[in-house]
Amino acid sequence: MYLVVKRLIDISLAFVGLIVLSPIFLVLIISIKLDSNGPILFKQKRVGIKKKHFYILKFRTMKIDTPKDTPTHLLSSPDQYITRVGKLLRKTSLDELPQIWNILLGEMSVIGPRPALWNQYDLIKERDIYGANDIRPGLTGWAQINGRDELSIEIKSQLDGEYVNKLSFIMDIKCFFGTIVSVLRSDGVVEGETSAEKRVGNSKERFLK
After folding, report:
1. How many Cβ atoms from other residues are within 10 Å of residue 133's Cβ?
2. What does the pLDDT read at residue 72?
3. Would the pLDDT of 159 be above 90?
4. Has residue 101 got a pLDDT over 80?
5. pTM above the 0.85 mark?
6. Is the dihedral of CA 152, 78, 109, 51 positive or negative?
7. Under a CB-based contact definition with an 8 Å cutoff, are residues 203 and 151 in contact?
8. Tens of pLDDT, residues 87-99
9. Burial, 13: exposed, middle or buried (Cβ in 10 Å; 0-12, 13-18, 19+)?
10. Where residue 79 falls among pLDDT bands split at 50, 70, 90?
């Protein structure tokens, strides 16, 4: 029953978001075009509900010669690819705003596990264990406010599974307001390669708290 209510909330929030945030959209569009060559939006193939592929939308934050389908935190030197405006967009998560359209299309929800890249086979497989591939992915989620890029695949999948098991209006409220706090603090944002040992250590510490 809540999934029906959740979908209605998603549609309502997305419509309101488009209207309220339209001035910000306009400013960002102009800033991106003036800052670097390339399209305004960035499309990337992701894994949706029941592992169906879809194209997620973001404001472009990288130069057009950036290696495709590679998570930013796995690039050896991401600073050479991120644009000046892109740094601000990524720090504030404003680059994610175009996903409001993905929400309206029913490909995403406001709250849910962040959609994996189509080629993140290890993450997709691990999420299968917890049923995290069986619900709509989200603009933000439980794992996002509990470590984000710092999390290992195992811990991230466990947190996604915890969200699935506790799926409710109260859980979504926790994720929503937790996201606001995380964005203000820029929690869990990792740009560039980080040693596996450090990421696993940090994620375990967060998960056990």
Report:
1. 25
2. 67
3. yes
4. yes
5. no
6. negative
7. yes
8. 999 888 899 999 9
9. middle
10. confident
* Residues composing the chain: 209
Rounded to the nearest 10 degrees, what angle do helices 121-130 and 153-165 cross at? Answer: 30
Q: Beta-carbon neighbour count of residue 206 at 10 Å?
A: 17
> How far apart are the C-alpha atoms of 171 and 32, rounded to whole Å?
35
Asked if the model's pLDDT at residue 69 lies above 80, the reply is no
Q: Which two tokens stand for residue 32?
A: 């991106």
- Residue 164's Cα: distance from chain center in Å? 17
HEC profile for the chain? Answer: CHHHHHHHHHHHHHHHHHHHCHHHHHHHHHHHHHHCCCCCEEEEEEECHHHCEEEEEEECCECCCCCCCCCHHHCCCHHHCECHHHHHHHHHCHHHCCHHHHHHCCCCEEECCCCCECCCHHHHHHHHHHCCCCCCCEEECCCHHHCHHHCCHHHHHHHHHHHHHCCCHHHHHHHHHHHHHHHHHCCCCCCCCCCHHHHHHHHHHHHHC
State how far the Cα of 153 lies from the Cα of 16, in Å rounded to an integer: 34
- pLDDT (tens digit, 9 = 90+) per residue, 161-181? 999 999 999 999 999 999 988
> Rg of the chain's alpha carbons, rounded to an integer?
16
* φ, ψ (nearest 5 deg) of residue 41: -100, 150
